[in-house]
Amino acid sequence: MARKKQEWFDWIKAIGIAALLAIVIRMFVFAPIVVDGPSMLPTLENGDHMIVNKLSYTFGDPERFDVVVFHATENKDYIKRVIGLPGEHVEYVEDTLYVNGQAVNEPYISEQINALPKGNKYTFDFNLEELPGGYEEIPDGHVLVLGDNRGNSTDSRMLGLIEVEELVGETSFTYWPLGRIGIH
C-alpha cells in the first residue's frame, strides 16, 4: 500500500513540476499569438498562429525588418515590422525606403510594389518629422514600425514611435494553419 501511495505522489509531483515549467516558459520565454487583421499581408495572414520569443530583446536589440509584437494599448498587442532604429532618419519617397539618405530594399513587399498599376503607391511618401512626435531622428529606446500591408495598417505613421520597452518580443514562426507552418 505504501508503494502505491508513493507512486501516486511521484505522479502528482511530476505533473506539478511540468505545469510549473509550462507556466514559467509561457510567461517569460515563449507565448502564442494570433494575427488579427490584414496589416501584415502578404507575409502574415489573418488567423495565423505564431510563437513570440519573449527573450529576444532581453539579451539583444531589435534589428531592421524583425517582425515584432508590442503593446499598442493596455488591452491590445500589434504585430508589425521594425523599419527604423535609434539614431536613424527614415523616409519613404516613391515606394523606396530611405534610412539616413540611403535606399534600403524591402524584399518582402517588392512583389506587391511591382504589381501596382503605374502611378500608384504602396507606401505613401512620408518622413520621420511628419510622424507623431516630429522627431528628426529616432531617439534611443524607440523603433519605427510599419505593417507590410501599408494601405491597411495602424502603425508608427499613426501611433508614433514605439518604445523598445513595449516590445513583447520577436516572432517569426507560424505553427497554424498547417499549410503555413514555417519561418517568415
Automatic annotation (TrEMBL):
Keyword Hydrolase: yes
Pfam families found in the cross-reference section: Peptidase_S26 (PF10502)
SUPFAM superfamilies: LexA/Signal peptidase
Enzyme class: hydrolase
Compartments, as annotated in UniProt: Cell membrane; Membrane
Membrane topology, record value: Single-pass type II membrane protein
Major localization listed first in the record, in broad terms: membrane
Catalysed reactions listed for this entry: Cleavage of hydrophobic, N-terminal signal or leader sequences from secreted and periplasmic proteins
NCBIfam families named among the record's database cross-references: sigpep_I_bact
Name of protein: Signal peptidase I
Species of the source: Pontibacillus halophilus JSM 076056 = DSM 19796
